[in-house]
């Protein structure tokens, strides 16, 4: 199973809609999506799922620190 986590704010339609469209297209390629509710939830998904193939998040909303944490998990895998 290939899994991609998408961390996105529901507040802005113009940011959320392209991610929904992307997920619909990639589902046809047998890619499953999870939508963590917040940064802590995303890090929990990273820590507990070896099938995770990628993370998409809003660079404007989340800090460089989140990117560094994701990179740390990537190095462990």
From TrEMBL:
<dbReference type="Pfam" id="PF03709">
    <property type="entry name" value="OKR_DC_1_N"/>
</dbReference>
<protein>
    <submittedName>
        <fullName>Lysine decarboxylase LdcC</fullName>
        <ecNumber>4.1.1.18</ecNumber>
    </submittedName>
</protein>
<feature type="domain" description="Orn/Lys/Arg decarboxylase N-terminal">
    <location>
        <begin position="15"/>
        <end position="75"/>
    </location>
</feature>
<dbReference type="GO" id="GO:0008923">
    <property type="term" value="F:lysine decarboxylase activity"/>
</dbReference>
<keyword id="KW-0456">Lyase</keyword>
<dbReference type="InterPro" id="IPR005308">
    <property type="entry name" value="OKR_de-COase_N"/>
</dbReference>
